[in-house]
Amino acid sequence: MRKKSKLLTQTFESYRTLLLIAFLLIVCPVNQAQTGSKAKQLSLKLSNTTIIDALKNVENSSDYVFLFSDAIKSNLRAKVNVNVKNATINELMSDLLKGTQLSYFVNNRQVTISKSHTQQDHKQQSKATLKIAGQVLDEKGETMIGVTIQEVGTNNMVATDVNGRFTLYNVASTNSMLKFTYVGYKEKIIKANNDKNLVVNMQTDTQGLDEVVVVGYSQQKRQSVIGAISTIKPSTLISDQSRSVSNALAGQIAGVIAVQRSGEPGEDSSDFWIRGVSTFGTNKTPLILVDGVERSLVNISAEEIESFSVLKDATATAVYGVRGANGVILIETKKGKIGKPVITVKADYGITTPTQMPKFVNGAKYMEVMNAANILSGSNPTHSEAAIQKTRNHLDEDLYPDVDWIDLVTTKTAPQMHACLDINGGSERLRYSLIVAFMGEHGMMATDKNVSYDSTDKMYKYNVRSNVDINITPSTIVNVGIGGYITNIGRSATNISTVFSECLDTPPISYPAVYSNGQFPIIESRYNPWAAATQSGYRRIYQNSFESTVSAIQDIGKLWKPLQGLKLKALFSFDAYQFNNAVRSKSPSYYYATGRDATGKLITTQVSEGQEFLSFSQSSAGNRTMYFETRLNYNRTFGKHTVEGLFTSSIRDYYNGNTQDSELALPYRDAGMAGRVAYNYDDRYFTEFNFGYNGSENFKRGYRFGFFPSFALGWVATNEKFMQSYINVLSKLKLRGSWGKVGNDNISSSRRFGYLSTIDNVTGSYFGTTGNVYETGYQEGDFGIPNLTWETSTKTDIGLELGFLNWINLQFDYFCETRKDIFMQRKTIPETAGYNVMPYANFGKVRNQGFDCSLEATKRFNKNLTISIRANYTYAKNKVLEYDESPAYKTTTLAQTGKPMYSYLGLIAERLYRNSDFSDPESGTLANGVPPSIYGTVHPGDIKYKDLNNDNRIDSYDRTYIGKPSVPQVIYGFGFNVKYKNLDLGMFFQGADDFSNMLSGSTLIPGTGGGARGNIYNNVDDRWTRENPNSDVFWPRLSNTVSGTNMRYSTWWLRDAAYLRLKNMEIGYTFPKSWQKPLRMRNARIFFRGNNLFTWAKFNMWDPEIGSQDGFSYPLMKVYSVGVEVTF
Amino acid sequence: MKKVLFNIFLFGMIFLTSGCNRYLDMEPDDRLTQKMVFNDIKRTRGWLSAIYNYMPDPFLTYIRDWGFPFISDDAQIAIAMGSFTNWARIVAYNNGSMYAGYALQSSSNLWLNTYQKVRSAYIFQNNVKALPSQGLTEEDVTQMKNEARFLIAYYYERMLELYGPFPLVTSELPSDASTEELMLPRTPYEDIVTWLDNEFTELAASLPAEYTDASTMTGRPTKGVCLALKARLWLFAASPLFNGNSNFANIKNPDGTALFPAIYDATKWQKAASATRELLDLAETGVYNLYKEYYNKTTAIDPFLSYQNLFINYSTNKELIFVYSGSSYTSWYNGIGNPRGFSGSGGYFGATQNLCDSYFMKNGLSPITGYNSDGSPVINASSGYTESGFTSTPISYSNTAYNLASSSGIAGVITEAGVYNMYANREPRFYISLWYNNEYIPKAKRYTQYYNGGLDGGPTHDSPVCGIQIRKGINPAADVKNSSVPYQPKILLRLGEFYLNYAEALNEVSFDNNKTEILKYVNLIRERAGIPIYGSDATKIAQRTQVQAPANQDDMRIAIRKERRVEFGAEGDMRYNDIRRWKISTDVFNTPIYGMNTSSTTTEDFYKRVTYMTRKVEEKFNLWPIPQTYMDNNTNLVQNYGW
Q1: Of the candidates B172, B276, B260, B212, which has an alpha carbon nearest to the alpha carbon of residue B521?
Q2: Whole-angstrom Cα distance, residue B560 to residue B553?
Q3: Which residues, at least 6 apart from A1083, have a Cβ–Cβ distance to it below 8 Å?
Q4: pTM attached to this predicted model
């Protein structure tokens, strides 16, 4: 250990010489204060200071005055270390001047310094120093490895070994203060005292009062945060086992509404919104900033994340001005920490399997149902009893096939693997962090072993992230952050989602996957999902991303004391992303069998000629972003007054290289300024003012820049004196409120520069005897709307934070947001205008309100048992207040105005028609008084809708908003962690409520594919029949074509999509320290983890979260995995 | 370092406060502006070209997007095709479940597209200018302006045929017009007729009768096109649908203006006749002529090749008045019109048995005159038609070099032995227009199989559901499976129509005064079709080289309608327009759609007449509903009758 720390010192010595940069004063605040009024007894502890500064220090704290000529000033700039206590002026002076060629003379209180007459040339002698040794223990008395011990004010530091022991050499004096730090534990400062067996007990930090929260362009102590900001521990994100961090958000963070709509590798990111949706405009998604730079959340590895903050209200987001309306997510990546290198290795391996797949009937049943559907549609049955028998008995699978396509093209399970290496460490002058992560995931598409290529559905992702912080001067820190990833995706040349929908669309009886003679069957313009999945060649997608950030922070306060607390930062970042999509495709020749010849040989006819070799095509594109920001931060406490200030300005330039549109290929630009003034008195009363002033290129000069202010007030009652007697019970009570405005400038994903008109290049026409002349077409495109401007969101938030017994924390926020001037494409302009593209306008208003709350409690019952629970709940309900809709609608039930977005507009199903509703059931002639339907002739067993507007006719005016929206209004999560001795168990449940799913699709109702398309769900028997004319069934009258009446959005097909799932379960075992020590481990743990293990839902045909209307969608996956994590 | 940082910071601040606005101005990309369009000859032509791009492609738009044959009684699509978005609208019409709120695909949405094209055309007229330096002369500009003017009239004429009155916009509406200004009411039918009549008259005077550079100008309007459309305009205006239709009497604008003429005006037939005469006069100067091919260089018409090649010959075909020049759907059309096992694509252009029954016999007589209540046909015994048994010998037709009907390839052999008698001894147009079961497919060297499980039959939805398939307009040389499909004309207007339009109008004006003229034009069509003409020569009638001519206006009307049914069978918009125009669609669909028993797997059962479906057609179906969304946005619009 000793050798190592010496080596470290030497490194820094040479480093210093190399840079030739004078180190500036680092004052130890503790000792400085002790240079009291005793004139003759001087105490001074200074390191790396100039003699002049030391003298000034003495002048300030004593009655001595120093005199010297300018000629020797240069000599006085020599660097010295001073550490004296209760010394005389002579002792001090000889100490100070001992390396110089200067001498001094004391006359009463006047000290004169002059050039020494005698040449003194002696080496600086090593001072007498101390050696401090000891051990660090946690609350349980367990030894702690890797705790950093630093002599305050110096670079002298060491970390505890596997036994929790440490020895710190070269401690200046017994008065030196030692600082003990460890993540998750309260910092501890202890006087050195020349102790040779110091025992230090560290306390875990459960309250997190000193915890720092990342806020817009700055950091604040948790206690002084009065904006609505939620944070999440990165470890929570890791345990989700998912490629995308976005999938871990639902139920984990109060205020985030999220749903995952697909489980396809590489395409499985969740849709998420902060506090729900507040606009029907294009842009509903939050702004995501990684290390202060707008980046994607999708492919960042959870292991790279140090902190994750969600900014929800106006106070938190106003500084992002015109882009902050949908909330902001701030992610900081891991930075190096002072201490010897900490190496963590993690790996896990898992298998995935779908949560729930739709189930279908087999071939024979399919034929029976088709016959029934044909009869009910007035047609003849198409399948003879003999054919059904042959299918049922699998007598001739070429001509009477019975294929479960889904089963055929999928594997039951697929593997998944993660591995991560994390190296972290550093000194006061240089800190480093390096994370390398790997993720491998296979999809569930089957492959054909007989083909020579690999069409496995797979995704491999390699992330790397490195952050280096260098103190190039004591007051200047330079950070270089580099991150990136490579993903290699392999797939079948036919998209998986395509194969999947083909499977669900191809009846079991169409043909086998392969004929017995080896030919691939197909019906013209239909699909052979097996051939599509396995015979169509393969696809490789290579994505790579590079992200870099260089920033420098200058602490001005360290240069000039009056400006203490003022820091200046400049940041430049450059990101680039590139992908290449290579497809090697082929197609087999397809045949269709018509029968068997006399010898029993299959007769087939060729349907299409294939291509037996792989053809090649590729596409590649990318994008890049440059960002530049300068920033001034001020933070200082004057007694009971704490002031924080911020002023920042930034510009961003994003180039999208993945478009053929000349307009979208122009760089996207943002520019703006933002500021903050925050003040707190005695940690009791808080106030904050934020503003953003920025502009958007989407608008014309004059409509471009906007000012977005916000205010907030906070009161921490528990810091009041009168509360101190209750503090043990009510450990925290904080009230806060905020109000402000934020904007959104994104008009549309395809429309930019809303003030400019466009001409569209469109299909032209052919002329000439043989159509030999083609002229490409041009026509009017978008109208330029000069006065277009941004959406404005006015947000109000009232929050309450409560702490009980020092271990229960509760937070509650009510919010209300009104979004106005929403961009929308006009919907009421009469078509006689002849516009090719309806113009945009700032039209519309939406109110979104709700609350979010969270509970966290961690209780350590004894040395062996710790239990923590956490829960949160988010409710957000929106309502459209203004919408551009026809006046004809406004007064009817069709009006969107007054209704939540994403609601279903549909009819109200009363019941199924009965025979008694008809005067002639056979022809569908309705009895008198029964309102006819404009959706076609109805028959008994069809859905009878309510004539809502009483016009004696069932039509589109009888529609109204039914059910809940398709986006959940409630997202909640709850879970617990138990740690008993070396075992730990965690479970987390996540649920969504208040949302609906509408079943729909041209082949949803059994039989409506006419026998050529569509599968039949296995609950088909739950249906109306002539024998059992019951309304209390799942399926109405079957028909052999899409029923204009039955297949409409209505309450009949509306389903409650609420679900609750066991999102995460983890059992871990930490190896005893005694086992770890010989291996030089600091921590070692193995675990079993399960994700999406159980789902409880009212809807039982497929996973309700995917929101599919017919189940034709890639399912979400269950994951079972085992893993190990070791820290060295 | 500190200084550098400070400078960076300072630079940043100064830049942001001063240069922000410029930084956010769009980068110059020399974006295309309207001005630049009209300063360039190619783009100017391109703007006009885009106005043309909603011209219907008879092979696609008529068949699928607007679905004319399928919503008339000529053709029947498998109801199962309704699960495909492109075909759902047709099936909705078949099921009677069409309604005003039906969400149309853009390609089917004539109403919306018309206004977009009209606006674009007026912008063109207001901005186009000569660019002499680029070779765009004043004459070119005049021609192009006329084309734009023509396109407005053309799209409006289509609107008038299908929707009836509509808000007539006759200028470029300002782009900042308020919603209220744009809420235009429908213009009365007769005002639109007057306006269009004037447009077509003026355009006919300005546009050339023929283009000297036809090889590049075909597809653009000529004098003849304008006269033809004017003739059609008046034919529609005179017809029962729009001429005193009592159903429409109460369709009035909110201000009380009646939109349809409430009283029958017989003089409109005279207008129709005169307008058609104008076109025929032009034709008779040699511009247009019925397409005929002759047998063995004699003067005897080869009816098979004449009628077949009328739809294939694009270079020397004088019957063509207006064609659509694009070619992308030729292959598709030849795919749906060939047996599916041969074309390799869906052969779902299925004919109805009703159409099959309408074709004359070889002797010019109708085989079937109606249906009994049980669906069995009322057979005209004198025609020689029978529905029992099979031909025992091949049947040859004289005067034809047509050799595609038998495996022998012998010219003139039209049916082989073993063909169901229903299909024997029919008129030449029958064989050119339809595929029947067990018919020889020359290119596939096999016989059609329309029964269940057959190569060309069910149970799949891409087979003809009535067991008989439309063959008309397909090119026997086309090999769809191997992507070898020659170019062929896509006919929007042909002279044949105007012969029969003329006869119809004259008959309505006065049968007695115009008997000769009427017969002349009907017989020109029959002559080319290779069947005996109408006459009154008793000898010839006895010899069966003439058919007794109709004796009065009513009989003549029936004869003309029968002739139109088969001459234009499954051809574009003809039959659909006819049954609407004559206001007979509800009567027509009282007869169910009949077919052969395609669900049968054996030949015996196959040749059994079955009802495929009974269409639900109401009086309101004669006009299309104005899409509900447009109604909702314009309180001045009134909906069509019944919708």
Answers
A1: B276
A2: 10
A3: A145, A1070, A1076, A1125, A1126, A1127
A4: 0.79
